[in-house]
Amino acid sequence: VMIALAESPPPVKVGTLPEHISPTSAKDYLGCSLRFFFGRVMAIPRQTSPALHLGKAVHAALQHYHLAVWRGGDTSPESVALAFDEVFTTMEKDEGPVSWKTPKARDKAREDGLRVVSAYLDSPEALKESPKAVEVFLREDIDGLSVPLMGAIDLVRQNLVPVDFKTSASKPDPKTAAFDHELQLVTYQLMIEKATGETPPALELLFLVKTKTPQVIPVSIAPADDHRKQRAIKMLETAVQGIADGRFHPQPGMHCSWCQFRNECAKWKGDAS
After folding, report:
1. What pLDDT digit, counting tens, does each position of 120-173 carry?
2. Is 259 exposed, middle or buried (0-12, 13-18, 19+ CB in 10 A)?
């Protein structure tokens, strides 16, 4: 029965196999292993980006709504907006400063968040029937992985379709979005199959787009066949072994322009010390 709420993963240690692997940490490692080292191994403090802060607040508001649908609570727009505002404010105190450029930028982000949450509640995509799980935390042993696979799924519909919510500044291209988030979605399928013995009929992304008129755009893809599953498992295991072996090095790309560890990266001498 999938009812446990998500928990924060423990810090990553180097030199032995990690305690588990998640799709987020694997994608982070594969994207740039040195950035992973600075952020997840050394845990160097950094300011929260406005986009990440907003995304977390939106997720919290949606979680409030979905739990209310599930448990017969208050699903009113006012209640959901209040949940958003509470998290938006308390995270700035509990998780450290956000890199707002100006106070007006903060106000605009808050307004954008409230608008996209409201757009979701008014959309055909808004959850109406009781879900199977909300923010479910799963940890499963998967064949081909040296460590348990762990992840938190935003929403699991009654028919076992996992849904991951994304906030976005622009309308996504469905094919590109599906490819970009393939590892995450297939990971969810692997865990659901192991937990329930059943294959979900689809894997779903739901984009909340912060355009002038907010948009709610679903992207649904077919469940993974054996090839796609094995590809995901190989990617996850590559990250596991790289972390365990201490393989961390710069991987230059467009992401460098917004990386908060550029100073640390410039001092890299060929090892992760």
Report:
1. 999 999 999 999 999 999 999 999 999 999 999 999 999 999 999 999 999 999
2. buried
List, in order, residues 6 or more apart from 88 with CB less than 8 Å away. Answer: 53, 54, 57, 110, 113
Name the residue among 119, 121, 4, 112 with its Cα closest to residue 57: 112
List pLDDT tens digits, range 257-267: 989 899 999 99
Please state at what angle helix 182-196 crosses helix 23-31, rounded to 10 degrees: 150
d(CA 146, CA 113): 39
What whole-number percentage of the chain has pLDDT above 70? 94
Quick one: pLDDT at residue 9?
43
Question: Which residues pair with residue 205 across a beta bridge?
Answer: 164, 219
- DSSP sequence for 154-212: EEE-TT--EEEEEEESSPPPHHHHHHHTHHHHHHHHHHHHHHHS---S-EEEEEEE-SS
Instruction: Count the helices and strands in the chain (H runs, E runs).
Output: 9, 5
Determine contact, residues 9/236, Cβ cutoff 8 Å. Answer: no
Question: Looking up tokens 């917004």, which residue turns up?
Answer: 258
The reported pTM is 0.89
Q: Edge-to-edge strand order for the sheet containing 149-156?
A: 133-140, 149-156, 162-168, 203-209, 215-221
Q: How many CA atoms lie within 13 A of 77 on its CB side?
A: 10
Helix (H) or strand (E) holding 133: strand 133-140
Instruction: Indicate if the alpha-carbon torsion angle 68, 69, 70, 73 is positive or negative.
Output: positive
